[in-house]
Automatic annotation (TrEMBL):
Protein name in the entry: PORR domain-containing protein
Disordered as annotated region, ranges: 340-364
Organism: Acorus gramineus (Dwarf sweet flag)
A family per Pfam: PORR
GO MF annotation: an example: RNA binding
Database matches in PANTHER family: PROTEIN WHAT'S THIS FACTOR 1 HOMOLOG, CHLOROPLASTIC, UBIQUITIN CARBOXYL-TERMINAL HYDROLASE FAMILY PROTEIN
Domain of life of the native organism: Eukaryota
Length: 364
């Protein structure tokens, strides 16, 4: 890996895109905690204790009151002879959304399957711990039950080794698919070759932000690096020296592909780091994001480093739309509906109180 570094520079447009997703991000974390609990029900006290881990900026009670219909409370027993305590479960809006989500997932199941296969195909041994994949499922649009439902229905591609929830449970690649083994960069080169009638070599789309200038030494290194042949993240890297420029080319290609597979074309850096061993990433892989500012951006918003694929955005607007983005948009519509009706309900309540007060004054 190169020892040259580039100074980090804030990108207000991309930071704003991340900020605008805050309601979705916080609510989806809470919803996932409930949906992954037995019977889709979780003690309210347990959810409140997980606030820090979920990185919620407000109390759980505040978040629920701001999003009516998302979750509802009910009384249930923790143990057979214990007193009933408040639990939370999907509310009427969330239940309606889950029906829409199931329809969208069914329509786009081949895409989810391809993403899962691609993640496993990029790993060094073509096998990834099941829990790691479960933890990133929402980033890539995978269904919560993909281990028990999606994987068993495609035995020609994948195999579940072990029992979900146990330490020795893995998703293993069974059959190699050449179409899945084409990266986003390689597919783009193929499409351009067809359009132009000329053979176009796979290459990175470099988009330095306005006003960003590299020092001369870094410009020369970047030019030489870009002229090197593209190394597919699906290729065999056993013959590459870990410190070679070719290995960095492969690592950057893999990071690009991982972000291309994500629904929002961005993934938290710590999330990628959990796959360091499987993806043959060095302990300093974050430097690859920072050293290629025309390909990636690392945002510091939300208290966690977020790796963003620059080419997927134009002035903070996501233009490279993943088909599974439909689920996020429907989820956001559900939140907006609840908040709008909540505001209208509070307005009517306030007007009723004002009328009651006015009537009392007039009658005195």
């Amino acid at each position: 890996m190169s020892s040259l570094n580039v100074s980090w520079r804030k990108d207000p447009h991309l930071d704003s895109a991340i900020d605008s997703d805050n309601p979705y991000r916080y609510c989806s974390r809470v919803v996932r905690e409930v949906l992954t609990s037995p019977n889709h029900s979780l003690p309210l006290s347990h959810l409140c204790r997980r606030r820090r881990r979920l990185r919620l900026p407000v109390r759980v009670s505040t978040l629920l009151s701001r999003n009516p219909g998302l979750l509802e409370t009910h009384l249930a027993r923790l143990r057979l002879n214990s007193s009933p305590v408040p639990f939370v479960r999907p509310g009427h809006r969330l239940r309606r959304y889950l029906l829409d989500e199931a329809r969208i997932r069914s329509k786009h199941e081949p895409i989810a399957l391809a993403k899962l296969c691609k993640l496993v195909m990029m790993s060094k041994d073509r096998v990834i711990h099941a829990e790691k994949l479960q933890n990133v499922g929402w980033d890539f649009g995978l269904p919560d039950d993909f281990l028990c439902d999606l994987v068993p229905r495609y035995p020609q591609f994948l195999e579940l080794v072990g029992v979900p929830g146990e330490d020795d449970c893995f998703v293993k690649l069974v059959g190699w698919n050449d179409e899945f083994a084409k990266s986003a960069i390689e597919r783009r080169a193929e499409e351009e070759s067809v359009l132009t009638g000329f053979s176009i070599a796979p290459r990175f789309d470099v988009r330095l932000p306005k006003g960003f200038h590299l020092q001369e030494e870094m410009r020369e290194w970047a030019r030489d690096w870009m002229e090197m042949p593209y190394v597919s993240p699906y290729s065999d890297t056993s013959g590459l020296d870990k410190a070679s420029p070719e290995m960095e080319k492969r690592s950057v290609g893999l990071l690009h592909e991982v972000l291309s597979l994500s629904v929002l074309r961005r993934v938290p850096v710590p999330t990628i780091g959990k796959f360091g061993e499987e993806f043959l990433l060095s302990n300093t892989f974050l430097e690859a994001f920072l050293r290629h500012p025309g390909i990636f951006y690392v945002s510091l918003k939300g208290g966690v480093k977020m790796a963003v694929l620059r080419e997927a955005y134009e002035e903070g607007r996501l233009v490279d739309r993943d088909p599974l983005l439909e689920m996020k948009e429907r989820f956001e519509e559900m939140l907006m509906e609840g908040r709008r009706e909540g505001r209208e309900g509070r307005k009517e309540l306030m007007q009723g109180k004002m009328k009651a007060g006015s009537g009392g004054f007039g009658g005195g």
